[in-house]
Design brief:
Length: about 475
């Protein structure tokens, strides 16, 4: 069998996309709460539209989301019924430190996640925790300017120390930042950055990036001090860029685009800024301010494994006037050889194998696919049942190539968690109708619905896949 006996099959969610209960049990306001559904969402998540509090003109889906805060036992029981070996979820920073800069954590927040962890362990489900999944308390945005301010590192250290201490012996796998490269594309979401008219945007972004990279390394250091059993991973929004043609200029453009993403994991996995990035930052006067000891911290605290999301490949041309489109916030040319999802994302299973090989060749560290799935409009019957063969087809083809990467190419893969095992709020659009789950949730884009959970056809299919350790994909 290609997959290891302890292969971690499961699913992944994010606190802000499923928990709700945004103001319960002492939780503070977070940047992710303030991202509305609708045409203004993009401006907010990129940091160009200032939204520092709720207004009456928008609907904010994260306020209630799918109310997993009150439904987690029911939801985890359904995950257990599918046979999950792991469940990836994230911590809402403002549940643990409502403002972010307190000295002591909020006990109710720590207790909630402890209860959630215990519920997983009850079913022998390994918790995989994302410490920060597009999540920062709004107090840290308003008072400190988000991750562009170096003081945030100290507050992040307090967060991770509280988490690692409280859940010692219960949680083995952690990811420091979700899709860390998203800072460059959705800066409010990725780092709590709000831009003013005269800001040097790229310089601010790279300063925030440096602070997150140092914070990630410090989290790795603290984890090993508190519990040497902990394994820490980085997390990349992956998907290789293909050149639009064999023209050398297109090939070089693709190499540049891929390096833009790999820069983050280069630092987290190798422990230093790569030469190509140092030269670029110096030439463009974008070099972040580094303090004495930063290089040492990065060097001595590299991650144990590389985790990543994969939804699609991308394509790039050296022709600046080419037919560009958006794929998961990343700009891409339209690939004429690939079909697309209802949201215009290229469907490219083989691209997953290519991406896995590229990352594994680069780092020679274990990989973990922590997001992969198909966002689609589901039409349920009167019982909430959905015949989602399109989702099964998508996942089947991706799992097939994942097997090939392990069995034929020799990639060391720890596990696979599909994105959104239960329907949740889309990070990119804020919609509920863009559904990923094996479990249907009765809720629409504007908060209407009973929140009733029901199994889709894919529920039993994925159950069979896990039971056979990926052998039965029919």
């Amino acid at each position: 069998m290609p997959f290891r006996e302890d292969f971690l099959w499961g699913g992944a969610t994010a606190a802000n996309q499923c928990e709700g209960a945004y103001n319960e049990d002492g939780r503070g306001l977070a940047n992710v709460d303030l991202c509305p559904v609708g045409e203004d969402r993009r401006g907010v998540i990129t940091g160009f539209t200032k939204m520092l509090d709720f207004d009456d003109d928008h609907f904010y889906p994260a306020q209630e989301a799918i109310d997993m805060y009150h439904h987690y036992k029911e939801d985890i029981a359904l995950f257990a019924e599918m046979g999950f070996k792991t469940y990836r979820f994230s911590i809402a920073w403002s549940r643990i430190f409502p403002n972010g800069d307190e000295k002591s954590p909020n006990e109710a927040g720590l207790k909630f996640y402890e209860d959630l962890i215990d519920e997983c362990l009850k079913y022998n489900i390994e918790p995989l925790i994302t410490i920060t999944h597009f999540d920062i308390p709004m107090h840290l945005v308003k008072e400190y300017g988000g991750w562009k301010n170096r003081e945030i590192i100290t507050f992040y250290e307090n967060l991770v120390r509280s988490i690692f201490t409280r859940y010692k012996g219960k949680v083995k796998y952690y990811l420091t930042f979700n899709e860390i490269n998203m800072i460059m594309h959705a800066s409010f979401l990725g780092a709590g950055l709000v831009f003013e008219e005269d800001d040097d945007i790229e310089k601010i972004r790279y300063q925030a990036v440096h602070h997150e990279l140092v914070a990630s390394a410090l989290a790795t250091k603290i984890a090993r001090e508190i519990d040497p059993e902990i394994k820490i991973g980085c997390m990349l929004a992956a998907g290789l860029y293909y050149p639009a043609s064999p023209k050398p200029e297109d090939v070089f453009e693709a190499q540049k685009k891929n390096r833009e993403n790999y820069f983050f994991t280069d630092v987290q996995s190798r422990g230093y800024y790569p030469s190509y990035k140092l030269e670029e930052l110096k030439k463009k006067d974008l070099m972040p301010i580094m303090e004495d000891g930063d290089e040492e911290i990065l060097k001595n605290n590299t991650v144990d494994f590389i985790s990543f999301s994969y939804y699609s490949s991308r394509m790039v041309s050296s022709d600046k006037n080419g037919d560009k489109k958006e794929s998961n916030i990343f700009e891409s040319e339209k690939n004429p050889y690939l079909k697309e999802s209802e949201w215009g994302w290229a469907i490219d299973p083989l691209g997953l194998r290519i991406t896995m090989n590229d990352i594994y060749d680069r780092y020679q560290k274990p990989l973990f696919i922590v997001e992969n799935g198909l966002g689609a409009i589901d039409t349920p019957d009167e019982n909430g049942y959905v015949e989602d063969d399109y989702r099964i087809d998508y996942l089947r083809e991706h799992i097939k190539v994942m097997k090939n990467a392990v069995e034929i190419d020799g990639v060391d893969l720890l596990g696979y968690t599909t994105w959104g095992p239960i329907d949740l709020v889309s990070a990119g659009t804020g919609q509920m109708k863009k559904r990923y789950g094996f479990i249907y949730v009765d809720r629409d884009d504007f908060g209407n619905g009973s929140l009733k959970r029901s199994k889709k056809k894919s529920f039993d299919w994925y159950k069979k896949v896990i039971a056979s350790n990926g052998e039965d994909l029919d």
